[in-house]
């Protein structure tokens, strides 16, 4: 059933139930208290409405999950929010290597992430992002991760059981749980006793009115509701951020408890960890029941009024917030573990949809990369290329649009996938463990007043400063210093590439400056891309060739685009004259 329709139907049924309840209470006051007995089945019916609605929506999601396993999932993603767990965890573990923002952007990893993301929960989409930005450097860790991914791919029953629990958790539109768990909780609980007393007053006064039929308790009810509403609005401003995510945190703990019941020997480590942690923190669930609203009722405003006048969320919040403080580290472990399980399930679905992939092999040798039939995972019907490089890096030349930048990204993306999700889009891949850094598309920073050259210089400096002391550095660079004049560009480029070569770096560099190939041919392997010209214009085969490309196609491109003949001819004449000098 469509969730929007289910919400609408639920709201209509609840409004009908409230109308019937009002009639029964009115009759009980005017005629006979026996009418109050009618409220008992009515309350039961209301709960059944929610239960049936939830079951119908969940069943729809479950069937979609089964049917679309292995298919790409198109949906809106708030990547700024999704990266929050990565940001928090990278601050905690500063000694670990992560793909920096420049590298992530250069390799268009946002698009890779979107292609791979089939997660079912908010922790899952956040941990998938974190996994892709955190290359591993031990093959045993990658194989351990791969074992769980294979379990999800191969064991349909296990996969669907885990999927059902994660579907129950689902995604939160604005997930603030990481902010709660990774920050200091500074909540003022001094009003807790007042809220506890004031929540009781309207209920006790209502009972007194029904028993005595005296008008006095009605005045007390009215006054207490006004006071409670004022309290609610004042406290809400201070605790809204916490309250909005405690309900989802509650669901995460329940999901951890459920998943700990899954029985598979390969899954034992996750099962034991979640079982132990969920038992330890389950009191939070009991104390936080109802916090965060009941989904489907918020649209009517009914629950907002009830929660406000009875101070329900405030009292539940005060009851559980100290427990959340106490078990903050355990809750972070639960969050990360649930997210990791969901992320590995998503990776399994992604792999299922790939036509071909290869599990990488790793070597203890430094600066080694060998790959056959390597393609970019985002390009359909991509032309494959093979490469074998050891110790020496690559200088790549070629015409415009011939495939240089795509090849750079293909190498970088596959190195990332190899060290994060243990696959490559190749028929064979063997390499060192690399730190991966790039300088492909640094941009002008207009607001910051930084020129293109300045951004290039910054991007290259971070690569130089990272170095390759513990692991080889795979540095991928497109056009060193294209933002400055040829004389300074060429000479600075030569020195930078020589520096990288002696500091355990495997540099893969694309350039239009043929002078670099002449000066560095003893230090770097030379490859190129080129094109053919036929009646239709320029034809690119996108195949990597050994050697140096001595042809240029910039003027040919002007001619192909029907630039004025005068411009094309004079440009060619100038080039010929300058080459004679």
UniProtKB/TrEMBL annotation:
Keywords: ATP-binding, DNA-binding, Membrane, Nucleotide-binding, Transmembrane, Transmembrane helix
Pfam families to which the protein is assigned, alphabetical: MutS_V
Transmembrane region(s): 5-25, 31-52, 191-209, 215-231
GO CC terms in record: cytosol
One Gene Ontology term from the biological process aspect of the record: mismatch repair
A GO MF term: mismatched DNA binding
Domain DNA mismatch repair proteins mutS family: 391-576
NADP recorded as keyword: no
The protein, known as: Mismatch repair ATPase (MutS family)
Species in which this protein is naturally found: Clostridium pasteurianum BC1
